[in-house]
Every structure is written in C-alpha cells, then in structure tokens.
Amino acid sequence: MHRYNVKDRTDLVPFHGATDTQIRIACSFGLLNDWHAAISGNAPLGDVIDVLTRLLSARNISFYRFKDDRAVHIAASARQGESFGPEKSVGTLAKYLRATRNEAIVPGTIMKLSELRQEASFAQSDAADEWDACTKIIDVALVVLADRPDQLDVFEIMYDRAPVTSPEVPSTLVMMALAEAWSLRAPGLITRIILSNLRSRAPAVQAAASSILSSNNPCGLSRAEQRVCQLLVTGQKAKDIGETLRLSVPTVRTHLRNIYSKTQTGGQVELIALVNDPQGLLE
C-alpha cells in the first residue's frame, strides 16, 4: 500500500529570493525523492511521471518496457489543462534503437528524434513512418533507463513546443540520476504495475481470460499459436520454444506477436497472468 504522497514542486519557490536555477535544483531534488519512493513501491509511479511531464514542459511522456518487439505500457502522462489525454507509445523508436545499436546503451542516455533522423537507416524504419505523420510534434526524446539483451526500459518524451532548459541543471543529469535509481527498484515492481494496468482493462480482457488454451478459445488462436502459448506460460524463451517445436526463432516471434495481439496482452507477464489466474486478476 502506498504510504507516501508525491508532491508537485514545479510551482513552488523553495525560499524567498530563490533564482530560477535554485528553483530548478529544488524541483529536481524533490523529483528524485519522489522517484525513489515510487520505485520502492511506496508511492504511485504515475504521479511522479505527471510531475516529470510538468518539469520538462513536455506534451506527453510514455514510460514503457520494450520486450519481444512490443511496448509494454508502464505509465503515461499528458500536459495538464489540455483536451488530449496521455498517449501510450507503440515503441517504434525503441525498436529502431534495438535494431541499430550493437553495444549496450548507457542508462541515462537521451536520444532525440531530430538527431536520429540524421542517420541514413532511419528513413526506412517504422519509427520514421510513425513520427513523420505527427506534424504537431517538434521533437521526441527517448531516455534509456535500463538496457538488457532482451528488453529496454525507456521514457518517450514528446514535445510540441520548445522545452524550458537550464544549462546549470541539464536534463541529462536528472535522467542519469533517475536511471541510476531505477536499477535499485523493488523486486517485482514492473510486474505489479503491469497487472494493475491489466485490471483497469478488465472488461476488455475478460473474454480473453476464459479458456485461452482450450479448443474453444474465444481469442481465435491457431493450433500453432496455442502450442507456442503453452510453452510460453511455462517460462520458456523464444529460442527454447523454437527448439521444442522445431521452429525458427523468427517464426516463434511471429506467433508471439499474433498471440499478444489476439489476447490483448502486452507481453509474457500479462499472458501468463491471464492463463494462470484470470479470475483472480480481474477481481
């Protein structure tokens, strides 16, 4: 249970006569304190993302885990006072980074859409197709919190106006501190958040939760997809599933994408939860 209330300090003056730089430093310290509370499970993570959105003067922030070629939603926030709501990323920028970077990306790294567009390979990517159509967005910053061989944890920050910056307190320092703290998050934090997000979609996933692996499954999984699903929920990875079923890894990944799409789940964690304990999750 949450025991800490996140405090939005973006409009507060820490002391009389504080300069803009001192105010930004105070806001950054406050944000880091709230972030530590959230990733230890003692405060709502979404509330901290709301504060970060205001601090960065962003239109929208989508926080997600890119895994199995899919963006698994963690939290999202939109600028307050607007008619639009938070947008969840589909992960094309993270997909591009994973495909073009052979070495691990240092946590805290900020990669901007405007800079990625200078790369020759970007024009042929799904990310280019997505963001070229978003004419209202002037830039997007992708902040890497964690980079593992099978997944990326990232903030995707959208700007439709020039962000307020400070050379004395650059965003890079703040993001590096958030990334460093992210490595110390409470065990199982992401799983709990994903399951909580799943509960909020209860009406949409109720049908998917009933007998996914039965011959009468309402999701319309093919026999091949059911066989892959049966192995996936035991915890096997794509390579192991391929060896068991004598399929190539790309074929297994294609089946996985179809399974996640048909069951309206965001990845292995959600799918396992639906198969093993559908009623418990939706209570």
Task: Describe it.
The protein has 283 residues and is α+β, with helices and mostly antiparallel strands. The protein has 2 domains: 20-186, GAF domain (Beta-Lactamase, 2-Layer Sandwich); 192-282, Winged helix-like DNA-binding domain superfamily/Winged helix DNA-binding domain (Arc Repressor Mutant, subunit A). It has 13 helices and 5 strands. A 5-stranded antiparallel beta sheet has the order 2-1-5-4-3, with helices on both faces. Helix 9 (223-232) crosses helix 11.
Note the main attributes of this structure.
single chain, 283 residues, alpha+beta, Beta-Lactamase, Arc Repressor Mutant, subunit A, 2 domains, five-stranded antiparallel β-sheet, 5 strands, 46% helix, disordered C terminus
Topology:
Layout: H1 20-39, H2 45-55, E1 60-67, E2 70-78, H3 92-100, E3 110-112, H4 113-116, H5 126-132, E4 139-148, E5 151-159, H6 171-182, H7 189-200, H8 202-209, H9 223-232, H10 238-245, H11 249-263, H12 268-276, H13 278-282
Antiparallel strand pairs: 1-2, 1-5, 3-4, 4-5
Helix pairs in contact: 1-2, 1-6, 3-5, 9-11, 10-11
